[in-house]
Sequence to fold (177 residues):
Amino acid sequence: MKKIIFLAIILGVALWFTCTAVNAEETAQTQPAAKATVPAPQGQEAYGEVVSVDANAGAVTITEYDYEKDEDVNKSYTIDKAATYENVKSLLEVKAGDWVALTLKPQKDGTSLAASVYVERYDIGEEATPRTMPAPVAPVAQAAPAAQAPLAAAPAPMPAVANTTAAPAATEAPAQQ
Fold:
């Protein structure tokens, strides 16, 4: 009797899985497929030292490291007219030798436009304040060493302490052959 009940439960579970799989398949066929959402492309960044700036054309050329070529290369980037600037007010303040980080946004024609320009400047704000070092301390004049002092005597040996634990009995050494 127990075997029959166990077999009925197993068959019921198998039937239930079959019905839910068929129902899911029918639902997938009757409902239109949801449009695949394409994530917005993430902005790339360019970082390097400014070689030249053409404020009239809104372009900057920087030397950046090309990982594929394993060398520094010069690349020109167009700056968006609505670009945001950090540490400078406009492209007119960017000069050769500055280090910049550009946040690029891809365009439909395959080019990239710099949406933000961050200039590393150490001549403005708190970063320009050099940390003050403490004044150097004059070296202390050392007296000429007199005759070398004798070495101190070695410390006295430790007194023997009575062994309160029982030591194992010594065994005879095996006879040499």
